[in-house]
Amino acid sequence: MSESANSFKKYAIIVAGGSGSRMKSDLPKQFIEIGGIPILLHTLKKFREADPSIELLLVLPESQIDFWEELCRKHADFSQNLAHQVIQGGATRFQSSLNGLNMIQGEGLVAIHDGVRPFVSTEVILRSFKTASETGTAVVSVASKDSVRISGKAVDRSTVRIIQTPQTFLLSTIKKAFQNPELPTFTDDASVAEAAGFEIHLIDGDYENIKITTPEDLLWAEVLLKKR
Known about the structure:
alpha/beta; Spore Coat Polysaccharide Biosynthesis Protein SpsA, Chain A; 7-stranded mixed sheet; two-stranded antiparallel ribbon; 11 strands; 33% helix; 23% strand; transferase; isoprene biosynthesis; IspD/TarI_cytidylyltransf_bact; IspD
C-alpha cells in the first residue's frame, strides 16, 4: 500500500462514554473543564489543528447528547470552528466504535481516539494517518518506563509497549474487522483488527498523551495545559 495519506479522505471518531466514577465526579469526565474549557472540546480542537480537512465524528451516550450541545453553545467562541457530527454510542466501546464506523461511506482513513486524551500532538495524529495509508493500521504506543511482571513473573521491559490512541486504520480494513462478533478480549480497536487477522503496526506516541480518568490525571492535565 503506497498511496499518500493526502490522497485519502480522513475521518476521526472521538469516542467519549465515560461516567466520571473513577474521577469521583457526578459530571462525566469528558465534560470536566481544564483551563475553563471541557476536555472534549480540547480533544476535538487537536484534530482540527492537525488537519482542517479531517471530518470529526463524536460518539456519546444518548443521555449525554443534549448536555453536550448545551456545552457547545456555552463555549461557542471556542467551538465555532469545531464542526462535528454527534452519534449515539452503544453499550460497549466495540459498539460505540461500530456506530461511528457505520456513519462513514466509501474508502478513507479513520483515526479512533479516546475523548479524554486532549493532549495528543499534531505530529502523532499526522504520523498515524501516514502510517495507516502505507500499511493499513497505525497504533500509537510508548515504551514502558517501569519494570513489568505478568502473574508475578518478570518480563523484559524493552518488549513492553503501552498502548494509546489514536488507533488509525484504512476504512476497508477496520470495517471488515468489525463484521466479526464482539469478544470479551476486545480491549481496544486494535484488538478487533488483530483478531480479524490484520497486522498491527505500532508507531511512537508521546508520554504527554495521557488519558484523563482519575483526579490525579486531572492535576497533571492542568500542568500540561499551562505548558502549551
